[in-house]
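Worked example 4.2. Below are the chains of a multi-component assembly; read each line carefully before continuing.
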Amino acid sequence: MRYFVDRRENPKGKSLGNRQRFVKRARNRIKEVVDRSLKDRSIKDLSTGETITIPTKGIEEPKFFNDGRTGKKDRVFPGNKEFIPGDTIPRPEGGGGKGQGKEASEDGEGQDDFSFTLTRDEFLDLFFEDLELPDMVKKSLTDVKNFQTKHAGYRTSGTTSNISLVRTMRQSLGRRTALKRPKKEELDQVEEEIKELEAKSRLGAKQKARLEELRALHEKMLRKRAVVGFIDPIDVRYHAFEKVPQPNSKAVMFCLMDVSGSMGEREKDLAKRFFLLLHLFLDRRYEYTEIVFIRHTHVASEVDEETFFYGRESGGTVVSRALDEMKKVQRERYPTDIWNIYGAQVSDGDNTSGDSGNCISLLNNDILPFVQYYTYIEVVDENEMEIVRNGEGGSSLWKAYRQVREGWPLFKMGKIAQAGDIYGVFRELFAKDLKGAS
Amino acid sequence: MTKQDTQPLFTRSEWTFDLMSTVYDAIEDIAHNDLGLDTYPNQIEIISSEQMLDCYSSIGLPLMYKHWSFGKRFVRDEHSYRRGYAGLAYEIVINSSPCISYNMEDSSMAMQTLVMAHAAFGHNHFFKNNYLFQQWTDAEGILEYLSFARDYISKCEERHGRERVEDILDAAHALMDQGVFRYRRPPKLSKEALHKKVKEREEYEERTYNDLWRTVPVNEEEKEEPDPSEVERKKRREMFKLPEENLLYFLEKNSPILATWEREILRIVRNIAQYFYPQKQTKVMNEGCATFVHYTIMNRLYDKGLITEGAMLEMLHSHTSVVFQPEFDDQRYNGINPYALGFNMMTDIKRMCMDPTDEDREWFPDIAGNGDWRATLLDAWANYRDESFILQYLSPHLMRKMRFFAIHDDANKSNLEIAAIHNNAGYRDVRNALAESYNLSLQEPDIQVMDVNMKGNRTLYLRHRVKNGVTLYEAQRDEVMKHLKVLWGYEIVLRGLDQQTNEEIYMATTKTSFD
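Applying the procedure described above to all two chains together yields the following structure tokens:
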């Protein structure tokens, strides 16, 4: 007795639940790698990249098993060449020996190192964990897209409000023609002829016959018209609508960062996370987002991301040069009628004395008039949490920017000291937009 | 009918269900009428490679509860498969009635033929006839039981939260190897209806035990050691049926802290461990039997002209790589290949039956030259496990052929010593040593519950009988003990005592300060 069963169409991914449990379990280890990978991957890569490969060491499932390095035992191997009883051979590397040791390490210690791939969502979830985004926002960042309803042809069912008259009539006409429904003109013509004949007082035999014929015809036509309706339910057509991703306009994000000596690993890492969040946010709102990286010391230049975050530049700090550069790049490449322009500046707040005034005027006169939004983030020392919490006092730049803020609602500023602060600040800065989005 | 006037059953590599059906009949004819195999009905399922990965990860069972370790296995297998580090098995076969085997859709018709002969007849016959499987597993009930287990655990997750269930499963998995009855036969797997009764009885038992526990005052004057008086000890031993080697069973019955559903989970894990226990003891025989059967059937099909030379070559290629045994100094050496050892031994038995040498007559007077290799093998398949099979049938001829040698490994010495080789003086020693290495009671640590402190802090006392000075791997031992504590609720003490001298070799405990 036997059966053959074709299971190929059965659902795959039976182990999805197990995989989710595993990722949850391995979370802490994976998280480390996610954090590390943040340093090695570019902003765009992170937000669009589907996968990341992760070496995971030992998610142990301990068991009682014999330690191959202890005690006395006899083992058997195949392939003797020259040994004779009593020979001694040095113990092979690794002490434990392979024999039983191998079996024991199958699920235990041993070489259990393997790598696997996180999906984009899994990755983003883990990444955002640090930023402490509320789940709702996380969701909208990772999967919601804006849709617009678009016309997508016709269908035979729908709601009355969606009836397409033109289409319905066209269907009706076709059907009437095909089924030879007598037209109104034809009917009128027959009726008129009947009237004419009836109006005559005397009719010849020929005319009488004609009248009979016409009356029969008339009746037949009426019947036919009753059977083949002018509009039949099957003629009715409805407009069909479809949700299509909204054709979004473009956005450009200017990342301005102070890279003078005081901006260390930590500061750049925080800056990167902030820029990343901003990029994901813009990426969600606009079909197409570009990033311009501008770094500055006492000079400013547009650079690629690599140089932006990893370059080892040093020198004095003249913030206004960066604003100048932003203005220049915008004039050259990003006309305001096509581009939505966003600016984000990260600095530790140090500036050459006297330059802050230049910054104020550049922002007021040249930059803020064309941007959608401009944020200034100050990275402060971890010990200065107090300043983050309550202080309006701060660096010279911070003080200068406070004046700018008075006149421009689209200009926002905030302070961060560690990764956990980023989202809070971000949310504050973009509160209105986020509310609208979620 | 001669070979010339028979048409081969297939000439191309694509398979169809009709074709498989025809080939199945041809295989069945040889298996039953020529080899005398006795099999469960077969259910052959065609699956995709992705589904094969799914199967793998849940230890080859078609229905399994959810647990992160299966996800880990999936992730690992998938990775090595996608990278091409490892191929997928061509088949997975399940000890159930009907006997379910999974064949991969990407296999060629020749491979499907090989796989059907191997799994649907070789393994199937072994499952149905080997005494261990007959006595210890319930082929009819297993699928139903697994489906019960899966549903039960998922209900527990809903009701008590995934995390709590995971804690229990983690702990139970850590003790899986200590969750089998080695010497007495376990009760049959209960079907769901029966199951309810069992559960009611257990609840009653639990209540009575709890009465005992309730009388125990836990106070500051806790005694470290259980009451040493002989009368008390005897009483405890009777009550807890000590010593008990099945740790999961002991915890399921006696743990003072587990809820009924938690006990049920232990029971599920224990039943699955028990179900796999015969497979662990018969790797060489089971794979050997399946390999010998497919090899014999392939050759018969070819002799009858039912398969083409091309198909035969393809199968032989696969067969050869399955039974390949690298030598100990080969890069690829990864222990003794059970397919190779089993197949070689069975081929050797056939040789001894049909064409014995004087040596064979001396060593195997019962079977040498008896002329009936079929019956001899059927008998071996039915009545042995790896250890006893090797002890009974490994011949000097094969030991020479595989150039076996035994090494004595004493951890206290820096050198390994060659204890015996394949010569007259060494045959018995090599054979004994090889058989011992398949003796699970030697290979797996012997850990038993010895005592419980009932009037004090409820410490659980375990004993590890240390054989030949082989101790436990410490890092993992301590982790397992933490899991044990999760299930027992109180401290655990594990003593390693030398099997012969009863001398204490080590002591491990979950107590943070031990004085």
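Take a moment to check your reading of the output against the notes. Residues 192-214 of chain B form the longest helix (23 residues). Chain B has a mean pLDDT of 87.
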